[in-house]
Design goal:
mainly alpha; 12 helices; 0% strand; globular
Length: 300
């Protein structure tokens, strides 16, 4: 493990809830409101950690394991993700495949925990989550394949550190566009889902965690914030042009990139409405098409 990579982990653990605050404050600015306090996500998680959890007699160990396994998978994926030009603490050839599988494990336990409640409402959200993920994952994996071919490596840290070799190829623009679409989908953001809604016909991610409370819900919220940071770090590390030998420069530029990504997400959610459920697959298939074109261009 390298020391700069450990800095990435500490920064992510500390600042991942703040990324949500940046998005919410940007949305509040466009709506002409003051917005919630910057530390509100930290306060919400802290308040939930001080509460107990209530479990239905109809649920099993699966329901209790869902939040813990989801958070553990996100923490495991964190050691594989670089920030800017700073490599990850753990790096090896093929770690990008492990990264994708860890996020898939996180989703799997969230889904089966929702199904374990026996609620048709949560089952509806789980069904939509699995359907959208089946369309989003090919775009993400094919995009990583295109970048890996351009960089000549299957390691996330080496891929993002390739810099000029990746940016010199035209398929990178297609991959970045596909990554941004999948980033919004995987984190249940507009136009795929509205994290602020509580309407039965539009909820996807939120409906799957309705029965969680107390410490379990704190794990869910922090895990979701960590997943937002993880996918954002991959996107920022690919886009960011700064490559320095100084760790603090790389970390500073990475944090700036994450802040700009949060502002961009806030702008998107302020200027767009949630898409109709039947139109969402078109966006994800379009992202997959972009990734396929990127792979074809890379193989020419």
């Amino acid at each position: 493990m390298n020391l700069p990579g450990l800095y990435n982990v500490l920064v992510a653990l500390l600042f991942c809830p703040l990324l949500l605050s940046i998005i919410n404050r940007t949305k509040a600015f466009f709506a002409g409101r003051a917005g919630q306090p910057w530390l509100q996500p930290y306060r919400d998680i802290g308040k939930l950690l001080r509460k107990g959890a209530v479990y239905s007699r109809t649920t099993s160990w699966v329901f209790r394991a869902g939040p813990m396994v989801g958070l553990a998978a996100a923490l495991a994926a964190l050691v594989l993700v670089p920030l800017g030009a700073n490599g990850a603490p753990l790096s090896f050839s093929g770690d990008l495949i492990l990264f994708a599988y860890l996020l898939g494990l996180m989703r799997f336990f969230t889904v089966i925990a929702a199904l374990d409640t026996g609620s048709a409402f949560e089952g509806m959200g789980a069904s939509r989550e699995v359907f959208f993920s089946a369309l989003a994952e090919p775009a993400f994996l094919l995009g990583l394949t295109a970048l890996a071919h351009a960089a000549g490596t299957f390691s996330l840290s080496e891929l993002t550190g390739a810099g000029s070799r990746v940016w010199a190829r035209p398929e990178s623009v297609l991959v970045i566009a596909a990554f941004f679409v999948t980033f919004l989908c995987e984190n249940a953001r507009i136009p795929f889902d509205d994290p602020n809604t509580h309407l039965e016909l539009t909820m996807i991610h939120e409906v799957m965690v309705l029965d969680h409370g107390g410490v379990d819900f704190a794990y869910v919220l922090y895990g979701a914030a960590l997943k937002l940071w993880l996918l954002g770090a991959v996107l920022v590390s690919v886009v960011l042009p700064v490559r320095s030998e100084l760790s603090w420069v790389n970390i500073g530029s990475g944090l700036l990139g994450m802040a700009l990504l949060g502002v961009l997400v806030g702008i998107v959610e302020s200027t767009m409405a949630r898409s109709r459920l039947l139109r969402v697959p078109y966006l994800l298939v379009g992202a997959s098409v972009l990734s396929v074109l990127a792979v074809i261009l890379g193989l020419r």
